[in-house]
Amino acid sequence: MEGSGVITQSARRDPATVRTTRAGVLIASIGALIVVFNPFGIAIVGLVLAVLGAILAARGGLGEGWYWVLAGGAAVVVLSRLIAEGSETLGGWLAVIGCVCILIGASLGYPLAADLEE
Fold it and tell me: Is the pLDDT of residue 12 over 70?
């Protein structure tokens, strides 16, 4: 069991994995901003982008604390949309809280060039 972490650590430092994680984090962040600001009434597009970004970032972030914040935020955003059908105020606040979680997770987990060198 001790050697199983080596495979995970080497996969996280793979340049393709780092690029995919970066793209996923950025897509999720853009989706969160679209959900909050709702330009031209396209908040649903932001919701889809937030979820897709969280899925893309999973390969490089699964098991990390920042990823669970990002994925949890994406789940809260989806739930907020479902709740907003009945209670707009509660759904709106949940959407804002979920988007803040996505942005915090993205700022903590964005892979830097130093992550490739480790």
Answer: no
